[in-house]
């Protein structure tokens, strides 16, 4: 699963390489608007007549991509690193399948590490009930919950969480690297 995702990650990094150089931040409104200059993107790549890429850029998914990834200051991820720093590597691997597969596996490993940051935490499996366990008579009924005690525990937890420093994830916002401009690579 992660290797398939890594392949698509590489594909979209190649497809949208240099997109940041075609973003325009318009600050006329109270909330800045990010506009993607499609004609410049297609023109610099020499793909103005390419129906596929034109349809991709006109789609709602790409509009969401631009609004989510357009801001110059946000949390960066693996895709941003690929687009900004791995241009030459991806291009060099085009004619060398073993290197390409190695890179895909590296990306898949990074995706796995991103989704499982604490590999040392082991999940204990719940054992299956033994055969005929549902027929036992000695099983006690589930106890009733004391609503007053539940409220007390909730209040204690809220009091503790208000006094504790806010939990922060490792994601820190940074200036998104622009990467090379669109005109520096030739496609297809």
TrEMBL record:
InterPro entries per the UniProt record, alphabetical: dDENN_dom, DENN_Domain_GEFs, Tripartite_DENN
Superkingdom, natural source: Eukaryota
GO biological process entries: regulation of Rab protein signal transduction
Annotated GO MF terms: guanyl-nucleotide exchange factor activity
UDENN domain location: 1-76
Gene name in the database record: Sbf2_1
Protein name: MTMRD protein
GO cellular component: cytoplasmic vesicle
UniProt cross-references to SMART domains, sorted A to Z: dDENN
PROSITE patterns named in the record: DENN
